[in-house]
Specification:
GO terms for molecular function: helicase activity. This is Type III restriction-modification enzyme helicase subunit. The protein is mostly helical. The chain has a domain of about 45 residues. Strands 1-2 form a two-stranded antiparallel ribbon. The chain is globular. The termini are far apart.
Length: about 60
Amino acid sequence: MRMVMHPDFPRSPYASLPPEMHWFRADETLRAMAYEKLLPPLVAHIRHDVAAWRKAGYPGASLTS
C-alpha cells in the first residue's frame, strides 16, 4: 500500500490543510467514499475540530500555545 496525497496538496509546509486534504494509506479512488473510515476515528475527529478552531481565529489560545 502506498501513501496517497490529495491532488491539490500544497507545496508549502506551512499551509493549513482542510481535513479532507490530508494523506492516508489507500488508493486515491477511496478518498471520496471512505476517507474517514480509512483513518483511526480519533484522527478524523481531531482534524475537523482543529480546522474549526483555526477558522474561528484560535479562541482560547495564549501567546505561548
